[in-house]
Amino acid sequence: MGESAISVRNVKIKYRCFKKVSLLKSIFAPRKNKKIEYFEAVKGVSFEVEKGQILGIVGKNGSGKSTLLKAIAGIFSPDEGEIDLHGHSISLLSIGVGFQNKLSGRENIFLSGMLLGFERPQIEEKLDEIIEFSELGDFIDRPVKTYSSGMYSKLAFSITAILETEIMLIDEVLSVGDAKFKKKSYEKMRSLIMNKDRTVVIVSHSSDTLRKLCDNILWLHDGVVKMQGTTEEVLPLYEEFMS
Ligand SMILES: Nc1ncnc2c1ncn2[C@@H]1O[C@H](COP(=O)(O)OP(=O)(O)OP(=O)(O)O)[C@@H](O)[C@H]1O
């Protein structure tokens, strides 16, 4: 076993949900009926990711993949267990995470960069490259709320791909944007991944993408690890299960 980049030890994550009550009940006894329920989305998951490894996470809808990724990214902390990144910098590339809609694309580059732990001069140094890669042209100075979903994801991808962190978490975004951008982002991702110092975790429903990019696969099922192993070992069994 090589040097560890991510250690996930017995992680459990619960969501707080409010139980639905009838409208009448909530009007006449509002406090009494505000029942909180918990839903455990991740139920004691443990695994290690070695430095330089490219791990794919698979599982049917609702199996806890995105929840786990957000916990690794530090967006929320686990209710139990621990996640150790061994001091590595980390970024999460995911649709719908992280932009301030009223701010321009350019302002969001600075905001996201700072949230990723970069200093302003470091971001300034990479600014032109990010804008160029995003292909947003003049839109870069317009509020992000005026962007189409494809433009939004182009910006998100460009920030994460150009401001390189040691660990990159990617949630399903390789399949967005127009065909040309999809190809370009796939190539960029490949070159980032080829850097053996970088550790990558990809959540995807595309076996094709996973087969091309990943060395290892973690299969989550109803919040627990069903299987972990090499891509050749796990992916055929997962595909058979899903067919
Ligand atoms: N904010 C939330 N509040 C309550 N339950 C949630 C919340 N977000 C997710 N869940 C539940 O947690 C479980 C895991 O969700 P998660 O999004 O992690 O699954 P996933 O494997 O990424 O699914 P998909 O493949 O559909 O993206 C699901 O049952 C989902 O309904």
UniProtKB/TrEMBL annotation:
Listed name of the protein: ABC transporter ATP-binding protein
UniProt cross-references to SMART domains, sorted A to Z: AAA
Ribonucleoprotein keyword on record: no
GO MF terms, alphabetically ordered: ATP binding
Keywords of this entry: ATP-binding, Nucleotide-binding, Transport
ABC transporter domain boundaries: 18-242
Coiled-coil positions: none
Family membership: Belongs to the ABC transporter superfamily.
Record PANTHER family: TEICHOIC ACIDS EXPORT ATP-BINDING PROTEIN TAGH
Source organism phylogeny: Bacteria, Bacillati, Bacillota, Clostridia, Eubacteriales
Claim: Hydrolase is one of the keywords in the record: no
